[in-house]
Structures are given as C-alpha cells and as structure tokens.
Design a protein that fits this description.
single chain; 122 residues; alpha+beta; five-stranded mixed beta sheet; 5 strands; binds tetrahydrodeoxyuridine
C-alpha cells in the first residue's frame, strides 16, 4: 500500500476516534475503512450499559459502508491513543472476512503503525 494512503487512513481514523462513545471502558477507538470504490467510511466505538450492545469502531465503519452499497474493501486503519496498538476483535474479523479476506489491517497510534492482512490475523 502507498504510504500516503496509509497516512490518510490513519488521519481519518484519528478524527473518527474523537466521536467515540466509551464512558464504560474509557477506551476510545477510531477506524477508517477504504472501499475498493475509493470512498472512505469512518467509525468509532459506541458502548452501551448492556455490554453486548457495544459495537466496535471497525464494525461501525463496515456496516456504514455495506449499508451504502459497498462490498469490497482495501484496508482499514484502527487508531488508539494507548502505547499498545489495537487489533480487531474476533467478531470484527469475522464481519470483515465476509467481504474481503485479503484486506489490510493498519493498527496505529500516534507513534507508529503496523500493517497486516486480515488473513494473517486469522
Ligand atoms: N474496541 C474497538 O472499537 N475496536 C478494537 O479494535 C478494540 C476494542 C472497543 C470496544 C469497546 O468499546 C472498547 O474498545 C473496549 O474493549
């Protein structure tokens, strides 16, 4: 992937993180998903008092995209502000695998990023 694309996705994920609703875990996550169409869909985690109703940033971005007609994805950036990077949970991996098993996962914080394919994470 081009460095500019990676940096753009990280920037968008960072902006999306600001909208996270995470009063329970206090762990805010932002995601930016690049569809094959070229469009970028963002997401943030939205928590709920009923923990099972919480949705991760990644799934919000994927569901936004799919609900607007997208089916194939290039990459998703996941941005956190902790020292440890975040990687998509099992549910998010499953949801992404449904559409694009070869998509890239970019895990980032303000100091660094790592790129893997979804297949590698499985
Ligand atoms: N979370 C995400 O949104 N994405 C990840 O990749 C890791 C975890 C959220 C879910 C929950 O709101 C909080 O982070 C703590 O797990």
């Amino acid at each position: 992937m081009k460095k500019e694309t990676i940096n753009l996705l990280i920037e968008e994920a960072k902006k999306a993180r600001k909208l996270a609703y995470a009063p329970y875990s206090k762990f805010k996550v932002g995601a930016a998903l690049l569809a094959k169409s070229g469009k970028i869909y963002t997401g943030c985690n939205v928590e709920n008092a009923s923990y099972g109703a919480t949705v991760c940033a990644e799934r919000i971005a994927v569901f936004k995209a799919v609900s607007e007609g997208e089916r194939k994805f290039e990459a998703i950036a996941v941005y956190v502000e902790t020292e440890n990077l975040a990687f998509p949970c099992a549910l998010c991996r499953q949801v992404m695998y449904e559409f694009s098993p070869d998509m890239k996962i970019i895990s980032a914080n303000k100091n660094r990023y790592e790129v893997r394919t979804l297949n590698e994470l499985f």
